[in-house]
Design the sequence.
């Protein structure tokens, strides 16, 4: 699994839950020299892969989600709704068989009809071709095309809990076009979505244009959109203030109040399914002691840090399950909050004096940005009680190579972020199950008897109530034993000029910008 880019469901390389971006263009179109084209300027470069079977970074998927339709798609409340599917699937064989019926008349941009064979290929190709997305579909044992509009999908011997909240949202590709020339499809894709791929200038821009023959009743108001990579948040804020852009996304915390008081600017925000955390080395060294982990959590105030450094664009977290996900599952978040150590420097010093070496100066590795600020805050507070910390700000590639070692000579703590979806498995399995040690985690937390088995059982169980009962003790143990300390969840934020209508931030990073859906149709008036 490559971790260089923030993706649909994985480590966040940047400090933002959504790519900080700008929909640039002139008021009413025309001033930018591009007519009515919208410009969407992304924070970082894309992988330049636009085949959904292959692509695994958020920035490419922001283009993909306009060009392709999913079998199901997330609505504004982060619930999957039928898109190419005619309705909910028929579930048989104790939750291990799904029969999908497709809408009739849905067509790809080349005029070919979307069939069950295309959906089957979309489910199986990531595993057959061993792409980075294989783990999202490898629970599928087989598919059977019943007819052009019916598909049977069989899982293994056991159910796969996240299937209905995650895997069913597969992005559908045309099998014949894609397999004829995969390389060409990757940079000039054919989908069935409301926009068509128009032009790609590598490392410069991507153009998409309205699909005037879109099979759905939805007709986008926007005619053209251009995606351009750009890394200057200060410049984006200046542009929106000056009216030189239409929309920016990923508002810096310190600029929130400025934009909130700016005439002609409207702010938008949505909680995202992100989990920012500090992990402790539970493999070797002093932080294998839960008392040392608790001491460090007592040494500073997470609440104060969030209010002073990220209060405008983030919300505190008290477990590894983001609040927007917890709204669906209703885990006892208030109880978890009460379980977490409160700011108590005297207790922190007492615990460290008893359980840590006299010269304890832990190494904290972190990417730059807000997480580096958090690491520095922790180091300052530890210094105040006679210990301190060595903060090492690493580029993301170096950080990834380092944190997975589990070596106490490399670090005692690391700060990272994870973006997921509306299922607890998105967070518990990759970040805590023993099979993911050295891949998505470097803390190597052994857990109590049955801890890892419960995480696997939750993944292989059907029914939300049953899975709740499995997951709740796992979450409680994480909060109590602190292999990771929950920090905050970041919001997806946007600022628009007042002539932009019907824009709203979506909780899922790859759905931004949602330009046309049942609940919105963005336009410039």
Sequence:
């Amino acid at each position: 699994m490559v971790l260089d880019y923030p993706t649909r469901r994985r480590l966040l390389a940047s400090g933002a839950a959504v790519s900080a971006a700008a929909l640039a263009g002139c008021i009413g179109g025309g001033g930018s020299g591009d007519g009515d084209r919208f410009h969407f300027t992304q924070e970082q470069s894309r992988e330049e892969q636009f085949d959904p079977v292959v692509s695994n970074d958020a920035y490419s998927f922001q283009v993909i989600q306009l060009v392709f339709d999913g079998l199901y798609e997330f609505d504004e409340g982060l619930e999957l709704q039928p898109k190419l599917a005619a309705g909910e699937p028929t579930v048989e064989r104790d939750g291990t068989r799904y029969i999908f019926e497709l809408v009739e008349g849905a067509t790809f941009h080349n005029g070919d009809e979307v069939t069950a064979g295309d959906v089957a290929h979309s489910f199986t190709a990531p595993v057959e071709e061993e792409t980075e997305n294989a783990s999202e579909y490898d629970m599928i044992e087989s598919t059977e095309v019943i007819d052009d509009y019916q598909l049977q999908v069989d899982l293994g011997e056991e159910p796969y809990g996240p299937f209905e909240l995650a895997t069913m949202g597969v992005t559908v590709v045309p099998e014949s076009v894609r397999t004829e020339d995969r390389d060409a499809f990757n940079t000039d894709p054919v989908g069935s979505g409301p926009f068509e791929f128009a032009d790609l200038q590598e490392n410069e821009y991507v153009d998409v244009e309205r699909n005037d023959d879109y099979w759905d009743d939805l007709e986008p108001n926007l005619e053209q959109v251009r995606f351009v990579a750009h890394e200057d948040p200060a410049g984006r804020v200046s542009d929106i203030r000056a009216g030189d852009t239409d929309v920016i996304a990923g508002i810096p915390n310190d600029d929130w109040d400025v934009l909130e008081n700016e005439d002609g600017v409207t702010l938008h925000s949505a909680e995202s399914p992100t989990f920012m955390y500090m992990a402790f080395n539970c493999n070797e060294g002093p932080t294998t002691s839960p008392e040392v982990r608790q001491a460090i959590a007592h040494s500073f105030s997470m609440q104060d840090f969030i209010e002073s450094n990220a209060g405008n664009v983030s919300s505190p977290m008290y477990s590894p399950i983001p609040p927007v996900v917890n709204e669906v599952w209703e885990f006892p978040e208030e109880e978890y909050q009460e379980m977490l150590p409160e700011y108590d420097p005297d207790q922190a010093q007492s615990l460290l004096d008893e359980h840590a070496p006299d010269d304890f100066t832990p190494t904290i590795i972190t990417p730059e940005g807000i997480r580096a600020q958090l690491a520095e805050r922790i180091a300052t507070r530890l210094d105040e009680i006679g210990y301190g910390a060595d903060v090492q700000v690493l580029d993301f590639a170096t950080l990834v190579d380092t944190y997975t070692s589990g070596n106490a000579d490399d670090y005692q703590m690391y700060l990272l972020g994870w973006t997921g979806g509306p299922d607890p498995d998105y967070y518990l399995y990759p970040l805590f199950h023993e099979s993911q040690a050295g891949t998505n985690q470097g803390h190597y937390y052994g857990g109590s008897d049955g801890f890892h088995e419960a995480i696997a059982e939750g993944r292989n169980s059907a029914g939300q109530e049953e899975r709740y009962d499995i997951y709740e003790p796992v979450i409680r143990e994480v909060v109590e034993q602190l292999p990771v300390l929950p920090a905050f969840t970041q919001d997806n934020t946007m600022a628009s000029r007042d002539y932009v209508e019907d824009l709203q931030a979506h909780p899922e990073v790859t759905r931004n910008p949602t330009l046309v859906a049942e609940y919105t149709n963005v336009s410039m008036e």
Summary: The chain has two domains: 44-229, 274-490. Confidence is low (pLDDT under 50) at residues 1-9, 14-33. The first strand starts at residue 21 and ends at 24. The CA atoms of residues 96 and 159 lie 5 Å apart.
